[in-house]
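Table S2 (continued). Query chain:
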Amino acid sequence: MSSPRIALAVFVAILVACAASRAATTAPCTFQTFNPPAGYTLSTVDAIGDDGTVVGQVTNNTTLVNEGFVRSPKGRFTIYAAPDSTVTWMYGHNGTQTSVGSYIDNGATSTVHGFSLVGTTFTALNYPSASNTWLFDVNKTGSAVGSYSSGSYVYGFLLVDDKYTNVSYPKAVSTYPIGLSDKGSVVGTYSSGEISNGFLWQNGKYTTINYPKAPFGTALDGINNDGVIVGNRLLAESSAGFIYEKGVFEDIVYTGAKFTLVGGINNNGVISGQIYLTETKSIGYTATCK
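Corresponding output:
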């Protein structure tokens, strides 16, 4: 089972000092759940815009093809496949008309490309001279974050007005900037060994943020304008969601679920994610946590 927005990543890194020393408590949350459309299974539930739009990925139960989805605030699903693609991921949404994601083309080399979708207008994005490109999030100003591969390394970037800024944790083998606030703060995960680490990037400065005693590390998936961060601690066969605010971790737990994963958070404090009722059956959710 994989964490939202990082299903492609193989996380490896050296475990560094945790950002908190005490065990997390459970956040008091009110959940609203939803099911995928008929004929589909949820793969991942990712970001949520300020308007309540949720994006992610579903699997067609007949063809077994993975496609992106956009779920409107009123619960209407739109299934989306990028042109000439075999797999499509929908990762980020800015609360207006713009969604971003990645897709694998149907060519012989199966290259990964980033893309933006503004209404129905599709635009592919490829980092210059990169082998593969992923696009993970977009904010209200149109700035975006993503990663690209070159050789055996994966580097992160921030894209503002067609200009790339490097967001790659120093000496890391891979960096995935996954969440972006309207203020330009970035969260994500990096690795250089066997454990992954969460990070915050603000004004060019990196801060490692790791859930205490997470056996396989931490992935940060979203940050809002108030600086509230959500993510997942990585376990042996699953992940588990949390919210991080002012140096304190709180677990996101749906009562009776086997696992509760987090995909993103908007500026209204509403969290999106996925609830695993069993190992194979899952539903989506939005939640407000006090």
